[in-house]
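User: quick one, fold this
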Amino acid sequence: MELFRTLLEWYMANLNYLTIALLMLIESTFLPLPSEVVIPFAAYKAAQGHLNVFGVVLFGTVGALAGSLINYLLAFYLGRPIVYKFAGSGIGRLFLLTPEKVEKAENYFIRNGKTSTFIGRLVPGIRHLISIPAGLAKMSLKSFMLFTFLGAGIWNIILSIIGFYLYDISEKIFPYLDDILYLVGGMFVLYLVIKGIRKRRNRKSKQGPNLPGARTSR
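Assistant:
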């Protein structure tokens, strides 16, 4: 746990308006970096007096808008075949991007229309990919930027409030931080085990029963 504390201290020491914007830019592309590890910590630092919470929200939202624009423009100019091909490639899967995830975001966009770029910023699993179907649908750039900025801003305000609240109760949490980390780590390992078991069962069910004496067709 000493290593975790060291990394956390380094992260907090280097968290400023520029890094907030950069990390939120990354979060709003297809790269797997959740905003939950950026804005709450920045707001926590703001509660200590090292940053301004309004600056945290502003730079976080601007960064999110910039990252969303990258996805939007790539989808706008590359088109659906190339986007889906990239999502199914080895590089796409390296970034946890799959055709199924892109299709899920696209279906969400179709159901909710232009406002999905606003509402989608508040939906886990959709938030960082909703810009792709907006680009594929050739959505107006002005409308896209407006809805994205508003949605990302509201989400960042929510996360900032959480960060401030954590600062208020930090003195009560820190004495039990090691126990909390062990608990979270254990739950994560359990989640991976359950997910692995389900994946193995699904694979077996797709293969079907292996009947004795069955012949394979040539």
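User: anything notable?
Assistant: The chain has one domain: 2-169.
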